[in-house]
Amino acid sequence: MSQASPSTPVQPPAAKKEFHSATHHGDTVIDPYHWMRSKDWEAMLQDPTLLEPEIRAALEAENAYVTDFESKFAPLTDTVEQEIRGRIIEDDSSIPKKDGEWEYWSAFRKGGQYPFFKRRHLQTGQEQMILDGDQESVGKNFFKLGTMKHSPNQELVAYTVDSEGSEFFGLRFRNIETGVEYPETVPNTKGSVVWSADSSCVYYIEMDKDWKARRVKCHQLGTDPANDVVVYTEPEETYHMSLGETQSGEYVLINSNESSDTSETQYIPANAPFGTKATTFVPRQLGHEYSVDHHDGEFFILTNRDGATNNKIMRTPVDATGVSNWVDFVPYNPRVYTTSIRTLKDHIISTGYKDGLPFVGVSDYAGNGYDLDFPGSTYEVTLAGSYEYDTQEIRVHYETMAMPEKVYDFNLVTKQEDLLKQKVLPNGHNPDDYVIEHHLISARDGAQVPVSILRRHDTPADGTAPLYLYGYGSHGLSMDTSFSPSNISLVDRGIVYAIAHIRGGSEMGKVHHINGRREHKQNTFNDFADAAGALVDMGYGQKGKIIIEGASAGGMLMGASANQRPDLWGAVLPGVAFVDVMNTMLDASLPLTAGEWDEWGNPITSKDAYFRMKDYCPYSNVKDQQYPLIYAETGLTDPRVGYWEPQKFIARLREVGQGGPFFLRTDMSSGHGGSAARFEAVRKKARQRSAAIHIFEDRLGYDVSLKTQPKSAPTVAAPTP
Question: Is 241 exposed, middle or buried, given 0-12, 13-18 or 19+ CB atoms closer than 10 A?
Answer without folding.
Answer: buried
